[in-house]
Write a structure and sequence with these properties.
By secondary structure, the protein is an alpha/beta fold. It has 13 helices and ten strands.
């Protein structure tokens, strides 16, 4: 039986292409089962996250398995989209999966969320009857490798992305993000990532504003929030706990005077400002207000770099362990 992995991720495909390959979480098992009805494919697991879509199969013939799986994926998609796919077979596919569950192939080195996502994808495939001896053994082994890596290395220590640093800092300020209101000024990718992380950590309300109200509404819909016109967002500042700003403006869009104007209405609650725009969106004087915590790109990047350097030193240790497990 031949092991094959075909997929795409944040390094090989932009988000608009990844969206076209995405599989709803509740359909992972049924999609995996569909694969086993195809010629030469005996087993299948489908993984789909915001950063990747991958299919693992056990096939009787490698070349035929690759051709059939690619043909299956090409349905309803154009040739240009298919060029973003990568292909891994045999030991290369095993190594890729082991690195994946350990967080070595993630946008944020060492992140833990992917471990649970792979487990869920495998669980659905198993329950649908899409896996047998080959993929059962492979995925169960990958989970033991992931556990070993996380137990015996420091690959997870410290946040390594600007977004994860910002979320960790927000939790330190508020104790926890549960019930907090996040406001996004601008609808860029970095803002989306930070907001998504905060919502996953318990933030309960999200408001997006952007010069293009259509883009604001689109991002708000994606993250389960609401949108307001760009010239009407100051009212939201009264309710917000966290403000993430990332616009293309040439001068600040949020000034200290605007915060001062709503302090009484806010009852002097803490306000966490994340300015990830270049040039900066938030006037530096805002950080001097008593209950305001302001972090710009330089501060966040510095904190992330310290943690990232420590993790990179651990990659070699992880790779050696994965080689042993292979």
């Amino acid at each position: 039986m031949e092991l094959i992995c075909i997929g795409l991720n944040h390094e090989t495909a932009p988000v608009e292409v990844r969206e076209h390959f995405a599989v709803p979480a509740e359909q992972l098992g049924s999609r995996a089962k569909e694969l086993t009805a195809l010629s030469t494919i005996a087993e299948g697991v489908v993984l789909s996250t915001c950063n990747r879509m991958e299919i693992y199969i056990a096939a009787e013939d490698r070349e035929m398995g690759v051709d059939i799986l690619r043909t299956h994926l090409a349905e309803g998609r154009d040739a240009e989209e298919m060029q973003h796919l990568y292909e891994k077979c045999g030991d290369e596919a095993k190594q890729h999966l082991f690195r994946l569950v350990c967080g070595l192939d993630s946008m944020v080195l060492g992140e833990t969320e992917i471990f649970g996502q792979v487990k869920q994808a495998y669980k659905q495939a198993l329950e649908s009857g899409a896996t047998k001896g080959v993929l059962n053994k492979l995925f169960q082994k990958s989970f033991s490798v992931g556990k070993r890596i996380r137990t015996h290395t420091r690959i997870q220590m410290g946040p390594t992305s600007v977004g994860s640093v910002a979320v960790d800092l927000a939790e330190k300020i508020f104790g926890k993000l549960k019930g907090s209101h996040v406001m996004i000024i601008g609808a860029g990718e970095m803002s989306r990532q930070v907001a998504q992380s905060m919502m996953s950590r318990g933030a309960s309300e999200l408001t997006v504003t952007n010069r293009s109200i259509e883009r604001a509404q689109s991002l708000a819909a994606e993250l389960g929030g609401g949108a307001v016109p760009f010239d009407a967002w100051e009212d939201t500042l009264v309710k917000a706990d966290v403000v993430v700003s990332s616009t293309g403006a040439s001068e600040p869009v949020l000034r200290a005077a605007q915060i001062e104007a709503v302090r009484r209405k806010r009852k002097y609650r803490p306000l966490f400002l994340i300015d990830i725009a270049v040039p900066r969106d938030i006037e530096s004087a805002a950080g001097e207000i008593e209950e305001v915590y302001l972090y710009d790109m330089d501060k966040l990047q510095h904190l992330a770099s310290e943690a990232r350097h420590s993790r990179i030193q651990q990659v070699k240790v992880c790779e050696e362990m994965i080689a042993e497990e292979l």
